[in-house]
Amino acid sequence: RRRHEVQLSAEAVAKEARKGYGMLLIGLGRAVTAKGGFSHRLNEVAGAFDGPLCLVLKPVAAGRHMPRLGPESGRILVPVNGTSVARRGAELALAIAAVTGAPVKMLYVARVGRDQPRDAVSHRRREAVLKDIVALADRYGVEIETAIRSRPAAADAIARQAGRGVALIVMGVARRPGEELLFGETTSDVLQRCRCPVV
User: Fold this and answer.
1) Using 50, 70 and 90 to split pLDDT, how confident is the model at 55?
2) Beta partners for 56?
């Protein structure tokens, strides 16, 4: 069967998207800037698609090669916060782990500060979120490790965990409105500070 190769461009993506795809998966080299933002090319390509995106990114500090995932490799780190989009990110990580056998750590980052009280109700909610993800992992046949960390900035806890044998970070995040591709301060900080690839 003859393959027809198309140059990756915003126009090509927009034209193809009209066929009714449910998600756009993008893996581009040099797509992350030194400040944790996204390149002009990635902004253009992602902007041509209206639906959910899956970006496979190598932060500036990452090594030259994507990691090989397996039972003896570094872990997949999955920050969660109780939102539906974070849960979908967790499900993607579990699907990857089910195929590769890579160990998974689910990390609930509880923001603490003057406006974020430490109380029993909040702690029970965090535990309920992780319990739901453990049940999801059981359906995928994947054993996971879970943890709750309290930090004023979520990226601090994620970066600290990422420095402990993590091969890949999978984050379910929401795209912010606007012309420029943004997923919020936490995502930008993670891309700026972590050395492993991020999905």
Assistant:
1) very high
2) 27
User: Which alpha helices (H) appear in 80-153, and where do they start and end?
Assistant: 84-100, 120-140
Which 8-state DSSP code applies to residue 113?
B
Task: Spell 99-127 as b/e; 16+ CB within 10 A means b.
Answer: ebebbbbbbbbbeeeeeeeeeeeeeeebe
Q: What are the boundaries of each domain within the chain?
A: 59-193
Cα–Cα distance between 53 and 30 in angstroms, integer?
A: 18
Q: What is the dotted CATH code of the domain comprising 59-193? A: 3.40.50.620
Q: CB count, 10 Å around CB of 142? A: 21
- Name the pTM for this structure: 0.86
Output DSSP code: residue 43: H
- Work out the burial of residue 28: count CB atoms within 10 Å of its CB; fewer than 13 is exposed, 13-18 middle, 19 or more buried: middle
- Measured between alpha carbons, how far is 66 from 130 in angstroms, rounded to an integer? 28
